[in-house]
Amino acid sequence: MTAQPLLQKYLTTPLLVLLTAVGLSVGSHQAEAAPQRVISLAPHTTELAYAAGMGEVLIAVSDYSDYPPEASKLEKVASWQGINLERVLALKPDLILAWRGGNPQKVLDQLSGFGISLFYSDPQTIQEIADNLNQLAAYSPKPEVAHQAAAKLLADRQVLEQRYQRKGEPVRVFLQFSNQPLFTASGKTLQSEVISLCGGKNIFADSPVPWPQVSREQVLTRKPQLIIIAGEQEKIKNVQTFWRGQLDIPVLTVPEDWFNRSGPRIIQAAEVICQKMSEISSTP
C-alpha cells in the first residue's frame, strides 16, 4: 500500500567490472529454454512462484518471503529499502518476478537493460491471481502445477460465491488497516472483492482512490455492521478500544499474509470472512 523508496544507486565502474565478471552485457537476449535461475522481488510473487511449481528454480527472494517455509531459507536480495542490484546481477538470474507497485522502477529498468527477463505481477482481483498462475506456467518446470493451482483458485471462489449468496441487504463492512490515521480500501482492491464475494458491502467501495484515509465521522455515517482487520487476535482489543462509545460491532481479524498479499492464500482469508459474515444479521 505504500510506495517503496527508490534504490539510490547508479551504474559505476566497479559495477561494470562485476557485470563483465558474471558474463552479463547490455543487449543480451533471453534464452529460449525454461528459466533455471529465478529471483522473486516480493512476498506475493514468491508465493505465486511456489504455487506455480517453480520452487526448485528459485534462487533468491525478497524480505518477508516466508511462505511456504522453504522460501525463508533462500537468500534475500530485496527489501523495503530497495533491490540489491549488484547481488542480483551476480546471481545470474534468467528470470525476475517483479512487483511494479512495490519495487523501484529505476532498478527494474536497469535489470531489463542487462537482458534479464522480467515478469510483472500486480494482481488486483482473484481472477488476475489465477491469470498470473497460468502465465507463470510458461516459465515453470511443472506447468501442470501452475494450471491446476489457477483452476483450484477459481473453483474455490465459485464455491464461496454460491454458498454465501445473500437474499437480503448485504452486510456493511469497514475494512480497517490502521488506527491513526484511519486507512481503508476502496472497491478497486482485492480485499474489497473478498467482501463482495462473501455477500458484504465495503462501505468505502465508492472511494476514487484505492487506499483512502478516512475520518471517524465518515465511518460512523456509513453505519458499518462489521469491522475487518488483518493481523493477530491481540489487535481486536486495540480496535475495540479505538471505537469504544461510538461503535459496538463485531471485529474480525484474519492473518495478515492471507489478506494483504495478492496470492493464492487470499481464498483462505475469504473462507474465514465469509463464515463470519454469514453469522451476522443484515438488519440495521
UniProtKB/TrEMBL annotation:
<keyword id="KW-0574">Periplasm</keyword>
<dbReference type="InterPro" id="IPR051030">
    <property type="entry name" value="Vitamin_B12-ABC_binding"/>
</dbReference>
<comment type="similarity">
    <text>Belongs to the BtuF family.</text>
</comment>
<keyword id="KW-0732">Signal</keyword>
<keyword id="KW-1015">Disulfide bond</keyword>
<feature type="domain" description="Fe/B12 periplasmic-binding">
    <location>
        <begin position="37"/>
        <end position="284"/>
    </location>
</feature>
<dbReference type="InterPro" id="IPR002491">
    <property type="entry name" value="ABC_transptr_periplasmic_BD"/>
</dbReference>
<protein>
    <recommendedName>
        <fullName>Vitamin B12-binding protein</fullName>
    </recommendedName>
</protein>
<dbReference type="InterPro" id="IPR023544">
    <property type="entry name" value="ABC_transptr_vit_B12-bd"/>
</dbReference>
<dbReference type="InterPro" id="IPR054828">
    <property type="entry name" value="Vit_B12_bind_prot"/>
</dbReference>
<feature type="binding site">
    <location>
        <position position="64"/>
    </location>
    <ligand>
        <name>cyanocob(III)alamin</name>
    </ligand>
</feature>
<dbReference type="Pfam" id="PF01497">
    <property type="entry name" value="Peripla_BP_2"/>
</dbReference>
<comment type="subunit">
    <text>The complex is composed of two ATP-binding proteins (BtuD), two transmembrane proteins (BtuC) and a solute-binding protein (BtuF).</text>
</comment>
<feature type="site" description="Important for BtuC binding">
    <location>
        <position position="86"/>
    </location>
</feature>
<feature type="site" description="Important for BtuC binding">
    <location>
        <position position="217"/>
    </location>
</feature>
<comment type="function">
    <text>Part of the ABC transporter complex BtuCDF involved in vitamin B12 import. Binds vitamin B12 and delivers it to the periplasmic surface of BtuC.</text>
</comment>
<feature type="disulfide bond">
    <location>
        <begin position="198"/>
        <end position="274"/>
    </location>
</feature>
<feature type="signal peptide">
    <location>
        <begin position="1"/>
        <end position="33"/>
    </location>
</feature>
<keyword id="KW-0813">Transport</keyword>
